[in-house]
Design a protein that fits this description.
By secondary structure, the protein is of the alpha+beta class. Helix content is 32%, strand content 30%.
């Protein structure tokens, strides 16, 4: 059963009481929240995700709620809780939907050590996974959003999950986080794209989340083989430049973008090394999405 098949009242009731149980990639999530912005966020962006059974194991019990009754009305705030633990300080109440996404990122990054977790977007075309590691502001989300809007499969926007066991990328397709100018850039690039309510004045500026394609969500149980490891950098006014990166430099840059490399120890090193050995590695500068799309599409053929 898909979330979109449930009446809105049933979704709101589940969020407030027993919890809304969703299959998100390889994870079972039970979310509790009395906040209208969170229910609207789910209704707008998570309609294609499966509702799971009451007896299925839950990986993450997540709560998005005010830290106290007073904080719902006086200097309103919202907190994210994972199994009763609060990993972040409360944020302004209006940022509840963004906090849910950030909180879920934290849950996955800190509790998924069957994978090497890379801070990277990852998309696929013709059976080839392109991994785009990068810090916030590097343009990886904007680039991956444009590719996804052009028919590429979305595996993840923020977290690439590289299996320690088999070296494949396991999908966790979720709404793509767009920031500031990128929101209007993607709206202009693909007028039919669905973007949820924009959350303003966050620590990262304005945040808008783009709905993942139905087909990407449908294929979320099918892993992909890495083919390209590309370190993007958006530079306004830049030409579109793709330069080959040495394997040794690519490994160093990759490790800098891993969340749990040190935790995995030897397994982390071997996993990262195998990814670099098996992938073509590049530095990529761009300012034009259309030029980037043409170049990367040619690279995937």
């Amino acid at each position: 059963m898909k979330l979109a098949t449930l009446p809105k009242k049933a979704i709101i009731s589940s969020l407030k009481h027993e919890g809304l149980r969703l299959k998100i990639g390889d994870f079972n999530v039970c979310l509790y929240s009395p906040i209208d912005a969170v229910s609207e966020h789910l209704l707008t962006l998570y309609g294609d995700f499966d509702i799971i059974n009451d007896f299925d194991f839950i990986d993450f019990h997540a709560f998005v709620k005010p830290p106290s009754i007073i904080r719902r009305y006086f200097r309103a705030q919202v907190s994210f809780l994972f199994d009763g633990y609060i990993p972040f300080k409360p944020l302004p109440y209006k940022q509840a939907s963004a906090l849910f996404e950030w909180g879920l990122n934290w849950c996955i990054a800190n509790h998924s050590h069957q994978y090497l977790v890379i801070h990277a977007a990852v998309v696929e075309r013709n059976g080839k996974a392109f991994i785009f590691p990068g810090i916030p502001g590097s343009g990886k989300s904007t680039l991956s959003a444009a590719l996804v809007c052009s028919g590429w499969r979305l595996l993840s926007d923020e977290l690439t999950l590289l299996s320690v066991a088999d070296g494949l990328v396991y999908p966790v397709p979720r709404p793509i986080s767009l920031k500031n100018k990128s929101i209007e850039v993607i709206r202009a690039f693909s007028p039919n794209v669905v973007i949820g309510s924009v959350v303003n004045n966050t620590a990262k500026g304005a945040i808008g989340h783009m709905r993942p394609p139905t087909e990407s969500v449908r294929l979320s149980n099918i892993p992909s083989k890495p083919a390209k490891l590309i370190f993007p950098k958006f530079l306004e006014g830049s030409k579109t430049i793709l330069n080959t990166l040495s394997k040794s430099r690519a490994l160093l840059k990759l490790v800098e973008n891993c969340f749990n490399y040190n935790i995995l120890g030897v397994n982390g090193f071997n996993c990262a090394s195998d990814l670099v050995d098996d992938s073509d590695c590049y530095n990529f500068e761009y300012s034009s999405l259309n030029e980037a799309l043409v170049l990367l599409t040619d690279l995937s053929d």
